[in-house]
């Protein structure tokens, strides 16, 4: 009897405040979509770090007629001189030394001709490619580290060697990309926080209106000895149900984005990049549902304490 009564009260409340309930669903849906997006973006950052940090290299650029720094020697004509064969051999010997064996997994030499060929493959369709000559590009050693975090060891050892122009850690380019994604995550969290506040206020307003429209019924229930839980539960469940629907919709949209945008398009167009897949929703979706239910439950109880004296 008690269960059927509660169910009828919940259905009645949802019908009476249909427009407000729809508003709660939509605001909860939008806010939790942003919350889920922030979580997925952080997961994507972790996925990319794990994938790219294993492939990251340190580039030891050798001196050329157009060096990046003033480390290179100046020839008799007053111009910078390219690294000599002896200097190049000396750098290779250091890379093969027992001193760096614990840090260097492998390395390869890229000549100016190789650098020019790679440049043309990457930028050959741009107008600037025609103005670049092989002698303008520096030769380099591409070093794969056992631990990418040990870049400072390589930098300190080679930055002052004769024939070395600059030592570049490719992680700095990746960190720029990760920084952009982290910024997007932060923006999503801020928007989500604002929308969650709106959702809490809407739930509170919906419950307050529902309690006001049914004040006569609740008065009668108090007179016949109904418990506090029996009177308040239908109101609380109205907000919880609306928020749960919003969380389910948010989870569905995020799953669709992961499947049809990330996996079916981005992943297929960028085979050399690591992307998260829809299985991430196995932990994101329950989290969104819990957040939505807890917010609705908490705001409903606080509202009822003030506007529904039992």
Automatic annotation (TrEMBL):
<dbReference type="GO" id="GO:0051301">
    <property type="term" value="P:cell division"/>
</dbReference>
<protein>
    <recommendedName>
        <fullName>Cell division protein FtsX</fullName>
    </recommendedName>
</protein>
<comment type="similarity">
    <text>Belongs to the ABC-4 integral membrane protein family. FtsX subfamily.</text>
</comment>
<dbReference type="Pfam" id="PF02687">
    <property type="entry name" value="FtsX"/>
</dbReference>
<keyword id="KW-0472">Membrane</keyword>
<keyword id="KW-0131">Cell cycle</keyword>
<dbReference type="InterPro" id="IPR003838">
    <property type="entry name" value="ABC3_permease_C"/>
</dbReference>
<dbReference type="GO" id="GO:0005886">
    <property type="term" value="C:plasma membrane"/>
</dbReference>
<comment type="subunit">
    <text>Forms a membrane-associated complex with FtsE.</text>
</comment>
<feature type="transmembrane region" description="Helical">
    <location>
        <begin position="235"/>
        <end position="262"/>
    </location>
</feature>
<keyword id="KW-0812">Transmembrane</keyword>
<dbReference type="Pfam" id="PF18075">
    <property type="entry name" value="FtsX_ECD"/>
</dbReference>
<dbReference type="InterPro" id="IPR004513">
    <property type="entry name" value="FtsX"/>
</dbReference>
<dbReference type="InterPro" id="IPR047929">
    <property type="entry name" value="FtsX_actino"/>
</dbReference>
<keyword id="KW-1003">Cell membrane</keyword>
<comment type="function">
    <text>Part of the ABC transporter FtsEX involved in cellular division.</text>
</comment>
<feature type="transmembrane region" description="Helical">
    <location>
        <begin position="282"/>
        <end position="304"/>
    </location>
</feature>
<feature type="domain" description="FtsX extracellular">
    <location>
        <begin position="56"/>
        <end position="167"/>
    </location>
</feature>
<feature type="transmembrane region" description="Helical">
    <location>
        <begin position="180"/>
        <end position="207"/>
    </location>
</feature>
<feature type="domain" description="ABC3 transporter permease C-terminal">
    <location>
        <begin position="190"/>
        <end position="309"/>
    </location>
</feature>
<dbReference type="InterPro" id="IPR040690">
    <property type="entry name" value="FtsX_ECD"/>
</dbReference>
<keyword id="KW-0132">Cell division</keyword>
<keyword id="KW-1133">Transmembrane helix</keyword>
<feature type="transmembrane region" description="Helical">
    <location>
        <begin position="21"/>
        <end position="41"/>
    </location>
</feature>
């Amino acid at each position: 009897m008690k269960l059927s009564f509660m169910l009828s009260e919940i259905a009645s409340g949802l019908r009476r405040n249909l427009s407000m309930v729809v508003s709660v669903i939509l605001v909860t849906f939008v806010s939790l979509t942003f919350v889920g997006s922030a979580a997925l973006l952080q997961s994507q950052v972790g996925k990319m770090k794990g994938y790219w940090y294993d492939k990251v290299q340190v580039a030891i650029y050798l001196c050329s007629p157009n060096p990046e720094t003033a480390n290179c020697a100046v020839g008799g004509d007053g111009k910078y001189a390219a690294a000599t064969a002896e200097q190049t051999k000396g750098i290779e010997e250091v890379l093969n030394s027992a001193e760096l064996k614990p840090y260097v997994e492998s390395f390869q030499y890229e000549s100016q001709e190789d650098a020019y060929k790679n440049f043309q493959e990457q930028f050959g369709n741009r107008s600037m490619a025609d103005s670049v000559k092989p002698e303008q590009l520096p030769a380099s050693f591409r070093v794969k580290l056992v631990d990418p975090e040990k870049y400072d060891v390589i930098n300190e050892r080679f930055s002052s060697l004769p024939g070395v122009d600059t030592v570049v850690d490719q992680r700095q380019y990746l960190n720029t990309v990760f920084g952009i994604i982290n910024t997007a995550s932060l923006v999503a969290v801020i928007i989500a926080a604002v929308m969650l506040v709106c959702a809490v206020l809407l739930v509170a307003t919906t419950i307050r209106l529902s309690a006001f429209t049914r004040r006569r019924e609740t008065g009668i229930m108090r007179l016949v000895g109904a418990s506090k839980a029996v009177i308040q539960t239908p109101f609380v469940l109205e907000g919880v149900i609306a928020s749960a629907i919003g969380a389910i919709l948010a989870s569905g949209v995020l799953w669709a984005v992961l499947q049809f945008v990330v996996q079916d398009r981005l992943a297929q167009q960028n085979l050399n990049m690591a992307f998260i897949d829809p299985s991430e929703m196995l932990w994101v979706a329950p989290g969104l549902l819990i957040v939505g239910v807890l917010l609705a439950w908490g705001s409903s109880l606080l509202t009822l304490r003030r506007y529904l004296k039992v």
